[in-house]
Amino acid sequence: MQSTSNNSLSRVFEREIARFFEATSGTRQDLYRNRRHDQRQHRECPLLVARLDVSSATDIAGTLVDISESGVGFLCDAGFRTGTLLGIRLFWSDVCSPRIPAIVRHCDIHPEGFLIGAEFAVGDPRAAAAIEAISTTDWHG
Questions:
Q1: For residues 17 and 97, what is the distance between their CA atoms, to the nearest angstrom?
Q2: Is residue 35 part of a domain?
Q3: Beta strand ranges found along 69-125 (DSSP E)
Q4: Structural domain of residue 73, as residue ranges?
């Protein structure tokens, strides 16, 4: 894998989030602010998550509930502890799509599994290194 700086990886992560917003901009979306600084948009689409704090990261399917520039909310069959580092693939069907690092901020039991809120960690060097460690794709920063 080609090595890049954390700053370059941060730009890759930020572009991937922007690309997702652009690709889903034609879908039905409800906007709400709640207590958040960034406006959240409801989306209902599949995504993949992987724990980055284990030696063999495997994909776990989830369903996106909402997204903002600073994080995501999603439903999943697996629960995660607060503080767990995840790699989120917003474009689940694109194997070359980079995972976005995110830190679990809450995990609540929900009728459909677990409702998980995670904050994007695009500028965190530890998160970038964990993403790079599990990636099989060259980065193009």
A1: 11
A2: yes
A3: 71-76, 85-89, 100-110, 113-120
A4: 6-134
Q: Find out whether 64 and 41 touch, Cβ atoms under 8 Å.
A: no
* pLDDT per residue as tens digits for the range 67-106: 988 999 999 999 999 999 999 999 988 888 899 999 999 9
| Total structural domains within the chain | 1
CATH number, position 124:
2.40.10.220
Long-range contacts of 31-40 (CB under 8 A, 24+ apart): 36/68, 36/70, 37/70, 38/68, 38/69, 38/70, 38/71, 39/68, 40/66, 40/67, 40/68, 40/73
Residue 18 carries which DSSP code?
H
* 3 state SS of 28: coil
DSSP 3-state of 32: strand
Please name the residues in contact with 128: beta carbons below 8 A apart, sequence gap of 6 or more: 6, 9, 10, 13, 101
Of all residues in the chain, what percent are helix, strand and coil, respectively (each to 5)? 20, 40, 45
Task: Please state the pTM of the whole predicted model.
Answer: 0.79
Residue 105 located in a structural domain: yes
Contact call for residues 134 and 57 (beta carbons, < 8 A): yes
Of 101, 91, 93, 85, the residue nearest 13 (C-alpha)? 101
